[in-house]
Every structure is written in C-alpha cells, then in structure tokens.
Amino acid sequence: MIVNISEAKANLSKLIDMVYHGEKVVIAKNNLPIADLVIHKPTGKRKLGLLEGKFAVPENLMEEDKDIEALFYGGNA
C-alpha cells in the first residue's frame, strides 16, 4: 500500500496497525516513494567489555600536570 504524507499523518494509528499485522506500507511525497513503514527490529544488546585487555590505564592517570595547570590557571601553578 502506498500513501501520501498527508494521508499518513491523518491515519498514522491505522497504518501502524496494518504494519503490525504484516501489511507493507510505503509513504510517498507527490506519489514518489520516500519511506517504508516497517516493524521495529532490535539490533541486539550491547556487549560490555569489548576493549578488555586492549589497552592499559597509566599508573599516573590522576596525577596533576604542571603544564596543564598552567594552561587553566595561568602562570606557575
């Protein structure tokens, strides 16, 4: 089924119900198809820990750096 944007706006709930029940709905602008209305398909859960073991956190990560402090506070911090 092809519907123009104005019709899709007026009948969105009906169109969503149709898609839910397996109908293909194409939204068009000036009778040119521009979008398909389809059921949402989740892409899957994110995987945690993908970078585990790929890099090391430096031991001095939290130490202050005089040069950076000088940039923020000016002069010799």
Walk me through the structure:
The protein has 77 residues and is an alpha+beta fold. The protein has a domain at 2-37. The protein is built from three helices and three strands; from the N terminus they run βααββα. Strands 1-2-3 form a three-stranded mixed beta sheet. The longest helix is centred in the first third of the chain and has 9 residues, at 12-20. The chain is elongated and about 70 Å long. The model has no long low-confidence stretch (mean pLDDT 91).
Provide tags for this entry:
77 residues, alpha+beta, three-stranded mixed beta sheet, 3 helices, 3 strands
Shape: elongated
Uncertain segments are: none
Q: Please identify the structural class as seen in this structure.
A: alpha+beta
Cross-sheet strand order for the largest sheet? 1-2-3
Q: What kind of assembly state do the chains in view correspond to? A: single chain
Number of strands: 3
Beta content comes to: 15-25%
Instruction: Look at the structure and give the mean pLDDT.
Output: 91
Q: Helical proportion?
A: 25-40%
How many helices? The count is 3
Q: Give a short account of the largest sheet.
A: 3 strands, mixed
Strand-and-helix sequence, N→C? Answer: EHHEEH
Return Rg in Å: 27 Å
Query: What is the CA–CA distance across the termini?
Result: 69 Å
